[in-house]
């Protein structure tokens, strides 16, 4: 059932997102119990939203989702589908220039919360 697979993927994405958000936000004066309660509440709301999503059959009935009865399959020409890897052709000077530009961006243009600036990772020059 594609809908349940999508729901599962979305649920795992939000669960992962909750974990990363919790680690990336600066710590407030909340205690651990408050943080866990807040996390549980967000998970409960997301789970509820996912459970209320319409099924494929409902979407088809409401003419939102439509599948074609006819499926055409043709042969494709075999060719190398691998992409170029331009980063393998960079000189050490090119790499240093990229690192320098990235560090300049992080230090001057990128918006970072004051309490999180100490965690910004800069690359070696």
From TrEMBL:
GO terms for cellular component: cytoplasm; lamellipodium. PROSITE patterns: RPEL. It comes from the Eukaryota. Keywords: Actin-binding, Cell projection, Cytoplasm, Developmental protein, Neurogenesis, Repeat. GO terms for biological process: actin cytoskeleton organization; closure of optic fissure; enteric nervous system development; negative regulation of integrin-mediated signaling pathway; neural crest cell migration; neural tube closure; regulation of cell cycle; Rho protein signal transduction. The keyword Cell division does not apply. GO terms for molecular function: actin binding; protein phosphatase 1 binding; protein phosphatase activator activity. It is found in: Cytoplasm; Cell projection, Lamellipodium. The keyword Cytoplasm applies. RPEL repeats lie at residues 44-69. Its main location: cytoplasm. Binds PPP1CA and actin. Belongs to the phosphatase and actin regulator family. Regulator of protein phosphatase 1 (PP1) required for neural tube and optic fissure closure, and enteric neural crest cell (ENCCs) migration during development. Acts as an activator of PP1. During neural tube closure, localizes to the ventral neural tube and activates PP1, leading to down-regulate cell proliferation within cranial neural tissue and the neural retina. Also acts as a regulator of migration of enteric neural crest cells (ENCCs) by activating PP1, leading to repression of the integrin signaling through the rho/rock pathway. PANTHER family: PHOSPHATASE AND ACTIN REGULATOR 4, PHOSPHATASE AND ACTIN REGULATOR PHACTR. This is Phosphatase and actin regulator 4. The lineage of its organism: Eukaryota, Metazoa, Chordata, Craniata, Vertebrata.
């Amino acid at each position: 059932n594609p809908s349940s697979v999508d729901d599962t993927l979305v649920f795992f994405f939000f669960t992962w997102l909750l974990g990363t958000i919790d680690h990336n936000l600066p710590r407030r004066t909340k205690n651990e119990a408050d943080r866990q309660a807040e996390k549980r509440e967000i998970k409960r709301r997301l789970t509820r939203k996912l459970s209320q999503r319409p099924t494929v059959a409902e979407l088809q009935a409401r003419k939102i989702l439509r599948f074609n009865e006819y499926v055409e399959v043709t042969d494709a020409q075999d060719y190398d589908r691998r992409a170029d890897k331009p980063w393998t052709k960079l000189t050490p000077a090119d790499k240093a220039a990229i690192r320098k530009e990235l560090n300049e961006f992080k230090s001057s243009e990128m918006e970072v919360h004051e309490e999180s600036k100490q965690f910004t990772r800069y690359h070696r020059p």
